[in-house]
Amino acid sequence: MKEFLAMGGYAVYVWAAYGMTVVVIALNAWAAQRRLRRTLGELKTTAQPEDPARRPTVRKV
Fold first, then answer.
1. Number of domains in the chain
2. pLDDT value of residue 52
3. Residue 2 CA to chain centroid, in angstroms?
4. Helical segments of 1-61, H only
5. Within a domain: residue 52?
6. Is residue 41 part of a domain?
7. Residue 22 falls within a domain, yes or no?
8. Up-side HSE of residue 44: CA atoms within 13 Å toward CB?
9. Fewest CB atoms less than 10 Å from the CB: which of 6, 38, 47, 56?
10. What is the structure's pLDDT at 46?
C-alpha cells in the first residue's frame, strides 16, 4: 500500500493533481447551485401575477 501511495516517486504531483481536480469540480458545482438559486429568486421577484383578461384565446378552425 505504501508503494501505491508513493506513486513511484511522483506522489506529490499525482496527489496534487487529484486534489486540484476535486477542488475545481466542487467549486463548479457550488457556482452552478448558487447561480440557479439567484436566477430562481430573480424570476420570483420579476414574475407578475397572471391577468385572466390577457389570456390568449384559442380559435377553433
1. 1
2. 63
3. 36
4. 2-6, 11-46
5. no
6. yes
7. yes
8. 6
9. 56
10. 82
Task: Name residue 8's amino acid.
Answer: G
Range of the domain at 24: 2-47
Cell numbers placing 25: 469540480
| Burial (CB count within 10 angstroms: exposed 0-12, middle 13-18, buried 19+), residue 14 | middle
- Domain presence at residue 53: no
- Reduced to 3 states (helix: H, G, I; strand: E, B; else coil), residue 57 is coil
Q: What's 48's DSSP letter?
A: -
pLDDT, position 44? 86
3-class DSSP state for residue 59?
coil
By residue count, the chain amounts to: 61
Kindly state the cell numbers that stand for 11.
506522489
pTM metric for this prediction? 0.63
